[in-house]
Design goal:
The protein has about 110 residues and is mainly alpha-helical. Helices cover about 70% and strands about 5% of the residues. Strand 1, helix 2 and strand 2 form a beta-alpha-beta unit. Helix 1 packs across helix 2.
Length: about 110
C-alpha cells in the first residue's frame, strides 16, 4: 500500500512539475513576442513618425498577448483593436465582403 501511495505521489509531483514548466515556457513565449512587437512599433515610430497602432489578425484573439502589447504601447501610442468584429477569420471575411460590395457598386 505504501508503495502505491509513493508511486502516486511521485506521479503527481511529475505532473505538477510538467504543468508548471509548460506554464513558464508559455509565459516566456508570450512575453518575448509582446516585447518584440512593442520594440518593432517603437523602431518604426522613430523612423517614420508616430502613428496610431492597429492590432489585427488571428494572434490578437490571444487575450494575454494582446493585453501585454497594449500595456506596453499605451499611453505613448494610440492603440486600436477589434471591438465588434473578431480579429481572425471572421474579420477577414467581413472585410472581403465589404470590398466586394464596394466593387459591385462601381460596376
Amino acid at each position: 500500500m505504501a508503495e502505491k501511495i509513493t508511486h502516486a505521489t511521485s506521479a503527481w509531483t511529475v505532473a505538477v512539475h510538467s504543468i508548471t514548466t509548460a506554464c513558464r515556457i508559455s509565459a516566456r513565449i508570450h512575453n518575448t513576442i509582446a516585447a518584440a512587437t512593442i520594440e518593432v512599433v517603437r523602431v518604426a515610430a522613430r523612423e517614420t513618425g508616430r502613428l496610431p497602432v492597429a492590432l489585427s489578425g488571428g494572434c490578437f484573439q490571444n487575450a494575454r498577448l494582446t493585453e501585454s502589447i497594449v500595456r506596453g504601447l499605451e499611453p505613448e501610442f494610440t492603440v486600436h483593436r477589434h471591438a465588434r468584429v473578431p480579429p481572425g477569420d471572421g474579420g477577414i471575411a467581413l472585410g472581403q465582403a465589404v470590398v466586394a460590395a464596394a466593387q459591385a457598386r462601381r460596376l
